[in-house]
Write a structure and sequence with these properties.
Elements (H helix, E strand, L loop, with lengths): L1 E2 L10 H8 L12 H13 L4 E5 L2 H12 L5 E5 L3 H4 L4 H4 L4 E5 L9 H7 L10 E7 L9 H13 L3 E6 L2 H8 L3 H4 L5 E5 L10 E5 L1 H13 L8 H13 L4 H15 L5 E2 L9 E6 L4 H10 L2 E2 L6 E5 L6 H17 L2
Parallel strand pairs: 1-11, 3-4, 3-5, 5-6, 6-7
Antiparallel strand pairs: 2-8, 7-8, 9-10, 10-12
Helix pairs in contact: 1-11, 2-11, 3-10, 6-7, 12-14, 13-14
Length: 339
């Protein structure tokens, strides 16, 4: 099957599986798993942060970060479309007792620094204490430029807040911007980076930041049930991904653009080219075409999240140039039949 539902469906390559099989392991809860130590040191160096912590998932990584930065009853600011607010089951409120306050985002997913300044609560016992700003890059595959991210973060820091970056796909942003991972995250006090999306590892994220905050996150990870034992077999995949799979993200971006261009001009669908900035393509379709398109793609051996009015297609390391041609042909055949 050609699976376009997400880059999370990517599978470990043979070389990554060999790294897993050859991993040296210990017990990470005791802090002596060499594979985990290597991954954490590699990630801290890559993002130029003091230290890093291997986490089972991006959701847990973001939650631990918010809880490490904030106390019960505190408030954090976050874009109204961002993943922590919209797609992580309300964990910051339910498990952290930390109140999110949504800020409007523009068409590209960015928040306004003036909105950040205006949202910070005065020091008054009637109000929750504003302690943190959560940013995100990329947002639905779109890249927010470094200057804007830095300006927004500076507004937060000037107001006494810390800044956490949900960088699940920050390496896609870095490749698209042509900058290093360290530059792409320099403004953030902490950053969570997913290993199991475009990087192709089977599981895990790394949370990078200052030693004091990561030490708190380490305790929170244990409380949340995220302590793992012989985790070096998983960490080996993460280390392999950070060493071998960053630069190749450019191939995913190219293939997304190629697919979007091939879909242009097909009657019955619309492809907003301005949204194709990394590895995501969005296709606008009529509700009446959902079932026929899903059936046509399935018959062609293609898995996709077909929905109206807009569906998302995601390229990743399991998708090659021939797959892009097959997907475009399947779309064309479907909508020709519907004419």
């Amino acid at each position: 099957m050609i699976d376009l539902r997400s880059d999370t469906v990517s599978r470990p390559t043979r070389a990554m599986r060999e790294a897993m099989a050859n991993a040296e392991v210990g017990d990470d809860v005791y802090g002596d798993d060499p594979g985990v130590i290597e991954l954490e040191e590699r990630a801290a160096s890559l993002f130029n942060k003091e230290t890093a912590l291997f986490m089972p998932s991006g959701t847990q990584s973001n939650l631990a970060a918010v809880m490490a930065h904030c106390e019960r009853g505190d408030e954090f600011l976050i874009g109204d479309r961002y993943h922590i607010l919209c797609h992580e089951a309300g964990g910051t409120a339910v498990l952290g007792s930390v109140l999110p306050r949504a800020l409007a985002t523009d068409a590209g997913g960015a928040v306004d620094p003036d909105d950040v300044r205006a949202a910070v609560k005065p020091d008054d016992p009637h109000f929750a204490r504003t302690r943190l700003l959560c940013l995100e890059n990329t947002v639905s595959g779109m890249v927010i430029d470094l200057d804007h991210m830095t300006t927004v973060a500076r507004a937060a820091h000037d107001a006494g807040l810390r800044v956490h970056l949900d960088g699940a796909r920050i390496l896609n942003a870095a490749i698209a911007l042509g900058i290093t991972p360290a530059r792409a995250t320099a403004f953030a006090d902490t950053v969570s980076v997913c290993l199991s999306k475009g990087l192709g590892a089977p599981v895990g994220s790394v949370l990078c930041g200052q030693k004091e905050v990561i030490a708190k996150a380490h305790r929170i990870r244990k409380m949340l049930g995220g302590g793992m034992r012989q985790a070096g077999v998983l960490a080996a995949c993460g280390s392999f991904a950070l060493e071998h799979n960053i630069e190749r993200l450019a191939d995913d971006h190219r293939r997304a653009r190629d697919l979007a261009q091939k879909l242009q001009g097909i009657d019955g669908i619309s492809v907003p080219m301005d949204l194709v900035q990394t590895n995501m393509v969005f296709v606008d379709i009529d509700p009446s075409d959902v079932d026929p398109l899903r059936t046509a793609l399935n018959r062609a051996g293609i898995l996709a999240s077909v929905q109206a009015p807009r569906m998302r297609i995601v390229t990743h390391l399991d998708i090659d140039d021939d797959d892009i041609d097959l997907v475009a042909s399947a779309f064309l055949a479907c909508f020709r039949r519907n004419d």
